[in-house]
Amino acid sequence: MSYDDVEIEDMEWNEELKAYTYPCPCGDLFQITKDDLRLGEEIARCPSCSLYITVIYNIEDFLGDNDKSKNKSLEPAKQQPISVA
Amino acid sequence: MEEAKRDEEESKQQQIWSWGAGTEGQLGTGKLEDEYLPQLLHLPILSSTGRISTLACGGAHVIALTSGGRVFSWGRGTTGQLGHGEMLNSLHPKPVTSLQSYFITHVSAGWSHSGFVSDIGCLFTCGDGSFGQLGHGDYMAQSTPVKVNYFADKFVIQIACALRHSLVLLRGDQVYGFGSGKRGQLGISRDKIKSVNLPQVTCGLEDVEIVSINANGDHSAAISADGHLYTWGRGFTGASDANFPQLSLSSLRCTEAALGWNHILLLTGDGELFMFGGNYHGALCDLEKMSAVKHLSDSSGAVLNKVSGLDGVKVMKIAAGAEHSAIVTVDGAIKTWGWGEHGQLGLGNTDDQTIPQTVSLGPDIQNEEAFFNVYCGSGFTFAISPHEVLSTVEYRSQGSVEFVVRSQSSNSVTYSVEKPETTYSARMPNEKSQIYFNTETIL
Ligand SMILES: [Zn+2]
Question: Domain DPH-type MB: where (chain A) (predicted)?
C-alpha cells in the first residue's frame, strides 16, 4: 500500500541525489529521478525501508526536458542558500 | 568505603536508552546502525553536565536539555539542525555553544529544524529554512541558532517544530505559526497558503487560554487550560484539512497530546489514553478488535479509540513517532506499538504491533516506582530514567488537600488533589518536564 500521495510540487529537488525527495517516516527520504518520471514511473521509494509513495505529476512536464532545457515550473521552488556562522 | 560511595553515586546517575532507526547517528550509540533492543548509552559529556530534564527528537536528530539550561545535540545535521555551526552529522552529543550564555527552558526538534526558548522568553531557531519554518523572514538555512527577531519584544514560552512548519506559544497564550501552510497547519488564513517566513497569529484561539502546543507531520494541536483539544492542518484518517483550529472531541478533557504523522495520542487527567487516526502503521484500529472498545466521535466524524490492552492501568507519559507510539504507565512500564520496521518498538524484532507491548530495558532495571520518560523521533525512541527535579513538595490543607510543588529552578505550582493516596504529576510553568509525586508518602 502506498504510504501517501504526494504532488510533485511538494517534493524537493536534491542536487546531491539528483532526485526529487519527500520525507519518509523512517527518517530517510523517498526518492524519484527525472528519468523515472519521464518513463511514467509514479512510485518514489525510500532506500532505507519498505515504504513508498505515489507521486502525482503531469508526465508532459517532463517529456522533452533534459538537464540543459529545464522546465522552470518544475525546478525547485527554493535553492537552499547556506549560512554558516 | 570510598569505592562503595562511588558505586552508589554511579547507580544514581541518570540512565539513557535508545532504539530504532540509527543510520544518521541519532541513537547516540556511536554507530550508524538500527537497534532493535534498548541500548544503554554511555555519554560522558552529558553525565558531566547535570541531569537531562527533557529530550526533543526530530526526523533524525536529538536535542537534550539539561536542568541547568544547557543544550546538546546529535544525529543528522546536514541542514544545520544541530546548531553546531556546521552542516554535518554528529555521532555523539555536542554542546550548542552559541546558546551557552542563555538559560534554555524549552527545546523542540522537527524533521530538519530546531527551536530553543530561553528563560527570558527569547526564541532561537536553526536548520532547514526552505519553507520559512525558522521564522527569520527568509528561506535560508542556519547552522547556528539565530534569534527570531519578530518576537524581540514578546515572551515566548514554547515552540513546536514539525515537518515543514513551526508553532510558537507566547506568554499571554497567543499562538503563532510559520513555515509551510499548504494543509492549513498554520491556521492563519481561509485561503490556501503555500508558506510564510515570518510568524503570523493563528486565528480562532483568541478567546481560549492555551497552555501547550504540539506539531508533527502537517498537523498542529493546542490544549487549553480547561483541557480542550484544538487541532488544525492535515486531517486524520482521510478527513479533510482544517485551515483553522477546531475544537475536537469536546467531551474529552485532556492534559497532554502527542502527534505522529497520521495519529494523535491524548492523555486525560485520570491517566486514560485515547488515540485517533493511525489506521496505517500507528494501527490500533484493527476494526474487529475495536468493536468492543468505547469510542467517542466528534462532529467531523473522527473516531476516537480508547487504547486497548492496558487493562485500566493509568498512563503517565506519552510520546509519538511518525508511525509509532510509546508510553509509560503508572507502574513504571514502558510500552510501545505501531510501525516496527526499524526496531523503533524496542521489542527485539522489526514487527508491527497493534496493541501496546512492554519494552524491557534489561534484567537489572527495576521499573517499579521509577518514572521513566519516553521520547519518539520519526523512526526511533529514547527512554531516560527519572529526572529528580523535585526539590520540595509542601503539604497544605485549606479545606481541600493542596500541595505546593517546587522544582530546582524554583518554579512552583499549587496542586489540589482529590484522592490523597495516589500519584500525581505536576507541570511547571515554562518547563516541559513534569514532576511526579506520591501524595501518600508525603502525608
Ligand atoms: Zn523510509
Answer: 2-58
Pick the closest to residue B383 from B353, B365, B361 (CA basis).
Answer: B361
CA distances from B273 to B213, B215, B324, B379 (A): 18, 19, 15, 22
**B254 has a pLDDT exceeding 80:** yes
Contact call for B130 and A12, based on CB within 8 A: yes
Q: What is the pLDDT averaged over residues B163-182?
A: 95
According to DSSP, the residues that pair with B1 across neighbouring strands are: none
Q: Do A85 and B143 touch (CB under 8 A)?
A: yes
Q: From the list B24, B142, B143, which residue is nearest A27 (CB)?
A: B24
HEC secondary structure over B194-248: CEEEEEEECCCCCCCCEEEEEEECCEEEEEECCCCEEEEECCCCCCCCEEEEEEE
C-alpha cell at B169: 506559544
Judged by a CB distance cut-off of 8 A, whether residue A26 touches chain B is yes
CB contact under 8 Å between A78 and B59, yes or no, is no
Question: What is the side-by-side strand order in the sheet with B324-329?
Answer: B315-320, B324-329, B334-338, B353-359
B73 Cα to the center of ligand 1, angstroms: 23
Q: DSSP E strands: which ranges in B249-306?
A: 254-259, 263-268, 273-277, 295-297, 303-306
Longest dimension (CA), chain A: 44
Rounded CA-CA distance A33/B117 in Å is 39
Q: How far is CA B266 from the centre of its chain?
A: 12
Question: Which of left, alpha, beta for B119 (phi over 0: left; psi -120 to 50: alpha)?
Answer: alpha
Q: How far is A59 from chain B (nearest CA, A)?
A: 23
Burial class of residue B253 (count of CB atoms within 10 Å of its CB; 0-12, 13-18, 19+)? middle
Q: Left, alpha or beta for B51 (phi > 0: left; psi -120 to 50: alpha)? A: beta
Residue B47: count of CB within 10 angstroms of its CB: 16
d(CA B168, CA B357): 34
Closest-CA distance, A35 to chain B, in angstroms, reads 25
pLDDT tens across B357-394, in order?
999 987 766 554 457 899 999 999 999 986 544 445 55
> Mind listing the pLDDT tens digit for each residue in B268-293?
988 899 888 766 545 433 333 333 23
Q: Give A10→chain B minimum CA distance, Å.
A: 9
ipTM over 0.90: no
Sheet containing strand B52-57, strands side by side: B52-57, B61-66, B71-75, B90-95
3-class DSSP state of B25: coil
